[in-house]
Amino acid sequence: MPESGVIHDIGYQRYTGPRLGPGYSARALYVHGVRSAYGLGRSPWAKVLPIGLIGLAGLASLIIVIINSQMPQPVLDYVGIASTFTFAAAVFVAVVAPELVSVDLRTNLLQLYLSRPLGRASYALTKVAALATATFLLFAAPMLIMFIGMAFSTDDGVAGVVEEFGGLLVGLLAAVVHASLLAALGLPIASLSGRRVFATGMIIGVFLITAPISAFLRELDPGTIGRLAGLLDPNSLLNGVDQWLFGADVSLVSIGSSGPVYGLVTVALTALGTMAAVWRYKGVKS
Amino acid sequence: MPLIETTALGMRYDGKVTALSDLTLDVEAGVVGLVGVNGAGKTTLIKLALGLLTPTSGRIRVLGLDPIADGEQVRAKVGYMPEHDCLPPDMIAAEFVTHMARVSGLPAAAARERASETLRHVGLYEERYRRIGGYSTGMKQRVKLAQALVHDPELLLLDEPTNGLDPAGRRAMLDLVHRIGTEFGISVVVCSHLLGEIERICTSLVAIDAGTLLRSATLSSMTGHNDLLVVEVDEGAERLATALTAGGVDVRRENRVLTVRLGQDDGAVYDLIRDAVADLDLCLHRLERQRYQVADLFRDRPAEEVSHA
Q: pTM score > 0.95 for this model?
């Protein structure tokens, strides 16, 4: 063991400074969660997928900006980004959610967290919030790029910029809805397995299985069943909300007059998923 | 105030496996060794003390608080080092310990400062800027200890801290635990299934077996007993015993071997034995001083004495 050399050992110092409460603990875990979702503070390999995805999203929005500025009518607006990027965000959640919770389970790091002033419920809620924030950033980054691009290329001066800004705010609101639902669905699923691969597979599986069922029902019956079939698949569910609330141009499903049902189901699923995460950690072995 | 106080504490897992039953004990400040074989209930007791488990019967208080009702307060004042691996391999040790300090409630700047200080105290210097995944078992144990110590707890709970270490590593870890208890002034409860290993660093010992208390005492009261002298003679052990008893010493005889308790004035006892052997003209085979081993306190104790404990 190397000696500390010239550094004088002043012995152990007791800590007399402030000790902040459980709220601060949760905040520390939250910031750590958002950072590690993008691989910050972790190995270079952990950065590849999340940073790559957000980079691709940015690139895609740049291309959209260029196309939009050439066309008389924009082909895709801010809410359109939220709708079309949902599947990419689902992939992001599938990769990142296991990073946030499965690793803690597998390495037993969870018991170190639980032996600190941080309750089981706040651990679960903090992780859901961190995942939702990371997912929100994935939506927000391309929207910001689009806003900057459109603001510079607008022909209507300040009025054009203000209009674009209004669009951006609506888009960010849609992003909050998307990110919350995806995180509330992905996190409890990921928390079932300590193996990252299984957790990722299960989340992707939910999307892969529900999408064709929903599409099949929509094909089968264009009536009420078809209109409500979109509820089965998160991707079309969120698109339905976008159409109902934010008037999205992109329509994966025809929701007819059942927009409120889509909204209700989205809120219910988000709440249910969050509760499932809390419930899951109530019983977890520590 | 006792650090940990339990009253008729019982813990059953799933209503089937009994981990602790009717455990009543007081753990006083100092370095406390919690000994017992694997499965005796040591880890269960620690998890109950942290409020991670809810006791199925009885009561436990830690630092005067109820770990279930005041869990947050208890866990802010207690540091816990689990038995098994619990570190994220792809984090840098210094960052990890800083993060854990913040989760314990230390402001960012203080967390960073205390993390590097604590890592230095446990013996990690330049290595602390490497990823934990590349660490040896000994270094991982040090990081585990550092994360338990970083928020300057009042009580440190160490579950088998020498697990997986080689003899030199064990000695270094135990010395470190001893320093934490004495120089740092933090009370430590250290679990081990190896009594011989922790007896030299502890101020008191608690022995549990199959979820019940076997014995709890301070080490000074345990080793405060006088040493024993073993006297072995060829024949006439009975006569020698009678002579020594007449001389006023405590003698036990087992065939040809006498065990004599050394009193305050052990020189007098030696003289008495020498004179008695010479007077009776016996053949002395062996005269050996036997140090009182703590292990003797836990071994071969009469059944009724155990149930009293």
A: no
